[in-house]
Amino acid sequence: MNPSLRVVVSRRIFPDLIEALQRQFVVVANQDDHAWAPGELAAALRDADAALIAGGERVDEALLAQCPRLKVVANIAVGYNNIDLAACTRHGVLATNTPDVLNEATADHAWALLLAAARRVGESERWLRSGHWKRWTFEMFNGADVSGTTLGVLGMGRIGRAIARRAAGFSMRVIYHNRQRLPAAQEGGAQYVALDELFAQSDHLVLVVPYSQAVHHIVGAEQLARMKRSAVLVNIARGGVVDDAALVAALREGRIAAAGLDVYENEPALHPGFLELENVVLTPHIASSTRATRTAMATLASDNVRAALAGQVPPSLLNPEVLGNRRR
Ligand code: DGY
Lesser CB count within 10 Å: N end or C end of the chain? Predict the structure, then answer.
């Protein structure tokens, strides 16, 4: 153990992962269920050499200016819109994320939301649990077909491709939109379409696009109006990709059939309209949450920290331009 290196873990993670870090470093871990407020995070990181953080923690100029020893910020998430990479580079701080290890679990969850929303699983279960089931009727909870329909994917990266692969089992046509068309070898038979066409043609549309200002509210009232009235929208990307107020209105007025959501604009707060609707399935940002995947994510984040503190290049470094100027 190196007693001069302090590693802060901002969220409660599995004890074996903390123990592994404790064998090498002095570890300060948040043991509470509540996320540290920005002031608490800054106080915890003031004399830290490394931080393992969750995607909800903001790392920006103001925080970095208070953390003179910090050498690496390791996000336990693939999305890193919470980290100001330019500010990290200016301060000589390495930033890392956890790509790939969560592709399959996250793709599985997108399908769980899609199927649950299309086949009205949450709604019918709530109805059953409330004691309403007295007799079977022909028209009970008629849902939308999934097999043989068209799946749209906005953001055909590694997770998007894992979602698209699963569509083969449902004999679906897959269309996608990215800023740039993929090389044919990576398309896996999916068809590239313009953004407007993606909204118009998809029977089921999954949002996986990484968040940036450029895609803020890329799904708003106008785009929802282009979708089929029978369409199902799934968001496993980030809050802010969808205009939640516009989505509540579209769901309430039946302008699209249903939605499955894992992420929200102001999470953990929800637009109150979602809670009043039956045609939306809501999960609390858990798309990557299997025990094995969360272990793999935190292990990769820990490996990033180990490499950074050993003066090596971390396996999933986000700002390689920092290397000439990194803090030692
Ligand atoms: C990710 O890895 O980006 C997930 O959304 C968890 O934050």
Answer: C
Q: Can you read off the two tokens belonging to residue 308?
A: 């950074």
Whether pLDDT at 164 is above 80: yes
Residues with active-site annotation: 238, 267, 285
* Distance from the alpha carbon of residue 288 to the mean position of ligand 1, in angstroms: 7
CATH class of 103-282: alpha beta
The C-alpha atoms of residue 102 and residue 55 are separated, in whole angstroms, by 14
Give pTM, 2 decimals.
0.96
> Which residues, other chains included, contact 281 with Cβ-Cβ below 8 Å and sequence gap of 6+?
113, 116, 117, 121, 122, 258, 259, 260, 261
Task: Give the DSSP letter of residue 317.
Answer: B
How far apart (Å, rounded) are the C-alpha atoms in residues 77 and 54?
Answer: 6
For ligand 1, say whether the CB of 102 is within 6 Å of any of its atoms: yes
Using the mean position of ligand 1's atoms as its centre, give its distance from the Cα of residue 303 in Å. 18
Looking at the chain, which residues constitute the CATH 3.40.50.720 domain(s)? 2-101+290-325, 103-282
CATH superfamily of 2-101+290-325: NAD(P)-binding Rossmann-like Domain (3.40.50.720)
